[in-house]
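Z., the sequence and structure:
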Amino acid sequence: MSEKNFDIGIVVGRFQVNDLHPGHINLIESVSSRHKRVVLFLGVSPALVTRNNPLDFVTRKEMILQRFPNLSVLSIPDMASDFDWSRELDHRIREACPVGSVLLYGGRASFISSYHGTFETADLNQIISPVSGTDIRKEVSQEVKGSSDFRSGVIFAAYNQYPKVYPTVDVAIVDGDRVLLGRKPHQEKFRFIGGFADPEDACYEDAAKREASEETGLEIGEVSYIGSARIDDWRYRSERDKIMTLFFKANYVFGKPEAKDDIAELRWFAIDELDSEKIVNEHHELLQLFLKNIK
């Protein structure tokens, strides 16, 4: 059956760009020329304001309707299962278009390979030249504009996110009856060694080992979990987002302590002489967890 013999053309995409580019415009115009009715489904991610999905559904819908005010724009949520997603898409298509033959269009890195529904599909690469939304977003991210709209967009993105917990790791490096602590620049008191977990860390245990190496240069043994605590970090006291740390203990194995990264000084402390007067306020709870674990 020719594309023009289908009553309804369905476009499924993400359109995660700041403006419709010529490829988008050509796509919608080309599909519209082939069908009496066109419906565009925007994929909606459950994750808010990420690099791959920075824009919410309403923002993208408004962008599209500004150029194509008569176009039907609906949402389709991302799902873990391609089969569940395909069934949901078919359901929403028939909910919006109860009768008529349907043809789905997909293109560069499109949904077609993941679609297991009942409708026929067509490759958009035959209609438009492929354009990378990822490349567009990267280019846009490198430009700071002086307009009020730009600043409003940044504020909108900041407010339209879930409250976040930033995971960190801290590790008590123990050598017999003493523990190694670090002091940061412009501070007098000491703290346990640690820092933010990295997306490339395989697990929090590996993150603890990495932080120990980066800040002390030491080789440590296997880490064991002590507990967790919310850290009253001064940088987040007025923020809704907070830091939560996973606290570990590990034995010193080899090396000479050398203050690195953001640590200004390292010092061994006798465990039985440790008290809160020597420790920064935000690590007082970690100190109590450590002393309880040692005892």
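The chain has two domains: 3-159, 165-294. The longest strand covers residues 242-254.

Let me know what you think.
H.
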